[in-house]
Structures are given as structure tokens and as C-alpha cells.
Design goal:
By secondary structure, the chain is α/β, with parallel strands linked by helices. The protein has helices at 17-26, 39-47, 66-76, 98-115, 129-135, 151-159, 177-182, 219-230, 234-249; strands spanning 2-6, 31-34, 51-54, 81-90, 119-124, 142-144, 163-166, 191-193. The structure holds zinc ion.
């Protein structure tokens, strides 16, 4: 399996990354794409030898300038950079003003199109602005990572041709129940799985991991929740989502 989104440069993994990676391999998670949330983190992910995305999360939009885009462009030339992002809009936390978020989201979309790279997209409480903005671009390959929205937002994303990334949010009985139904509406060739480690530890894991830290080895837990919701064998869903990740990110 392929975890398409894990934040392995996060300090939560500083002390035991080799063990985390070993557990992932033991769990059948053979490939991990590390999410780049800043130029610095993207660079760190590459230094650690991972596949990575290169981009700036909307939280950090206020710190961007034109040099940021040039740095991302340079990183994108690295053979292990498989996508531009994560980029997008986050109107939940609003750590950066909306005009900054929109400006640097646009610039990263332009860069992805110019370089013909897939886009790794983040949208939180930003519907419908997110899809309005995407409509102005000719996006060919992109994933709405960590999809948590409702039916209308899902339809808008699928109409734009996006892949949909599902995390352990679907295991959250308080705020993820709607996803149990919505995953059935995602075409089989559009579905991707991710952990978003160390965040979004599946709430129904027993026992809960130490310090409630999520890690790539828990991807099969997300897989099983999705497969149950679809009423389909987990092996089939694993094979399909792996194939989809390979197709989107151009992995062999
Ligand atoms: Zn995100």
C-alpha cells in the first residue's frame, strides 16, 4: 500500500523514525509520500530519502514571497518530488489572511500546471471558494487530500476531475460518520488512502497508540474502515488505491 500523505518531518517522529518505517513495512505500507508544508519541510523530506510533495500549506501563506515559488520550482526538479503542494485554502484555522492564502494557492497551481506536476491540495471549510478557484485553472492531475467535506463539496471535486484522499477521519464517530456514506460515491479509480500522520489517529483504534500519535503503519486500519463502508474486500480496495496512487504520482 501507499500512504499518500504523512508528515514524517514532524517533530513527533524525531526520536524513532527508523522504527516507525519498519512498522509501516511490516504492515504492508511499502511507499510513503511525505507531505511538504513549507519549503524547509519539503527539503527535509527529500534529505531523509522520501518521496515528497513540494509546496506551502495555506497556514504559511503569509510568509510566502516570490522567492518561495522559485524554491518550489527548484525542488520540483528533484526526481523524488512527486507533486506540488500541499497548497490550498484553510478557512478553519485562518492562520493566514484569506487574500494571502488565495494568492499563493494560485501561484502554486500555476507552477504545477507549468511543470506538468500533479497537485496535492488542501481545503478545509473553504467550500465553495476552493472549487471556484480551481475552475479558473486547467488542472489535469490533483488530489483533494484529507477530504472531510459534504456531498456537494465531493461532487464539485469529482466534477473537477480530482482524486479524493480519505484518512482516519472516516473512523471518527463524532465528525466523520457522513464519510461512511460518501465514500460510496467516489469512483473506484479516484480513491486514495492516507494517514496524515502524526495527525488524525483513528479514534476507534484499541488500544489508542502512545500519545495518540498516528503513523503510516495504521493505514491498513483506514483501509479496513473504507472497505467496510464500501461493502467490499479490503484486498481489492488496497490494490485499487495503490494503483490509483501510482497513476496519479507517476510511481513505478
Ligand atoms: Zn492538509
Amino acid at each position: 500500500m501507499i500512504d499518500i500523505g504523512a508528515n514524517l518531518t514532524h517533530p513527533a517522529f524525531r526520536d524513532d523514525l527508523p522504527q516507525v518505517l519498519q512498522r509501516a513495512r511490516d504492515a504492508g505500507v511499502s511507499t510513503i509520500i511525505v507531505t511538504g508544508t513549507t519549503v524547509e519541510e519539503s527539503r527535509k523530506a527529500l534529505e531523509l530519502g522520501f518521496y515528497a510533495t513540494a509546496g506551502v500549506h495555506p497556514h504559511h501563506a503569509r510568509d510566502c514571497n516570490s522567492a518561495t515559488i522559485e524554491s518550489i520550482r527548484e525542488l520540483a526538479g528533484h526526481p523524488r518530488v512527486v507533486a506540488i503542494g500541499e497548497c490550498g485554502l484553510d478557512f478553519n484555522r485562518n492562520y493566514s489572511p484569506h487574500p494571502d492564502q488565495e494568492l499563493w494557492f494560485s501561484r502554486q497551481l500555476e507552477l504545477g500546471i507549468e511543470l506538468n506536476k500533479p497537485l496535492f491540495l488542501h481545503s478545509r471549510d473553504a467550500h465553495p471558494r476552493f472549487s471556484q478557484m480551481l475552475k479558473q485553472f486547467k488542472i489535469e492531475k490533483a488530489v483533494a487530500h484529507c477530504f472531510t467535506g459534504g456531498r456537494e463539496e465531493l461532487r464539485a471535486n469529482l466534477d473537477l476531475g480530482l482524486y479524493i484522499g480519505i484518512t482516519g477521519w472516516i473512523c471518527d464517530e463524532r465528525r466523520g460518520r457522513h464519510l461512511l456514506e460518501l465514500v460510496r460515491e467516489i469512483p473506484r479509480d479516484r480513491l486514495l488512502l492516507e494517514t496524515d500522520s502524526p495527525y488524525l489517529t483513528p479514534r476507534d483504534m484499541r488500544p489508542q497508540p502512545k500519545a495518540r500519535r498516528n503513523e503510516p503503519a495504521f493505514l491498513p486500519h483506514v483501509l479496513r474502515a473504507v472497505a467496510r463502508a464500501l461493502g467490499r474486500p479490503a484486498e481489492e480496495v488496497a490494490a485499487e488505491t495503490t494503483r490509483n496512487a501510482r497513476a496519479l504520482f507517476g510511481l513505478s
